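Review this fold:
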Amino acid sequence: MANAAVNKARVGARVLIAADKFKGSLTAVEVAERVTAGLRRAVPGLDVDSLPVADGGDGTVDAAVAAGFERREVRVAGPLGQEVTAAFALRGDTAVVEMAEASGLQRLPAGVFAPLTASTYGSGELLVAALDAGARTIVFGVGGSATTDGGAGMLSALGARFLDAEGEPLAPGGGGLADLASADLTELDARLASVEFVLASDVDNPLTGPKGAPAVYGPQKGASPDDVQALDAALAHYAKVLERAIGAKAAEYAASPGAGAAGGIGYGALLLGARFRPGIEVMLEVLGFGPALEKATLVITGEGSLDEQTLHGKAPAGVAAAARAQGKEVIAVCGRLALPPEALGRAGIRRAYPLTDAEPDVAKCIAEAGPILERVAEGIARDFLT
């Protein structure tokens, strides 16, 4: 009888599940749990290691906690100034701080956008909390932001002063930067000078211009074409004022890769001395991917949508590249697949299994992603492990 319970794994088989979240359906931890359940339904007793991953965007703290970091919660300002409970992750003297915890789109009321007024002040408060907790290395994951303020709010929380022509503090948000007359960074938290600060992002946009934060990401945050134009001009003015305050490096940072990440908070981080690195590369190091990979015979990665964006710094591409370098076979799970087999192959992914192959109804795939993913994982086990 063809019964999954009688299947046996290939000798020495060991699976590493290193997938990101299925946004809107499953967290990265839940993806790993469902894939594990499906694999073991087909192959009882299969050796499976779970390492949920993230690329610096929302879900980064959860991935760190799943890897053994301690979750620390603190009350900070949300993007509209309302108080929210946000978390960072700590292990020893290394902190993983996720800006979306404080300043992300998920912190806005449903259906509400604030492209001109949303502030990163709470992200700065999260960094202060990490410093207070004794962090000497801070991995600052950015993405999923509700903000386009160039990190001005974050810098303010860390001691910077931004004033208008009347000597008054600016209104929060990127729109208020149009009124900036003077900037003073001399009172920034002194502890930053002795911390290793890593800006972890999956995008390398500059601050302004056709590929800058407002033009590329502003519309996702509710910015109209007029808003985009206003924000781009305000951020360019902000950089000019900072150039007067701290010199030519302010202009250099504005044009640097990563400055435009998360509404320009990348620029603020660079001003603080952060070193920009691809988010998934940093997170794989922090999460201990290397040692887990050594033991694996098969790696399963994935995210909600495997598409062109995946190939440009998203978690599955980073996992696949690292695994391919070690000669490991990689397959992927996803909600939807928008890449041809040759593109997957170039990325180091042998085969992808979208939920839509098991359930063509997209709405049902989103609503019932967990059980469907388990069924998909059973198929993976039959195809690759028995």
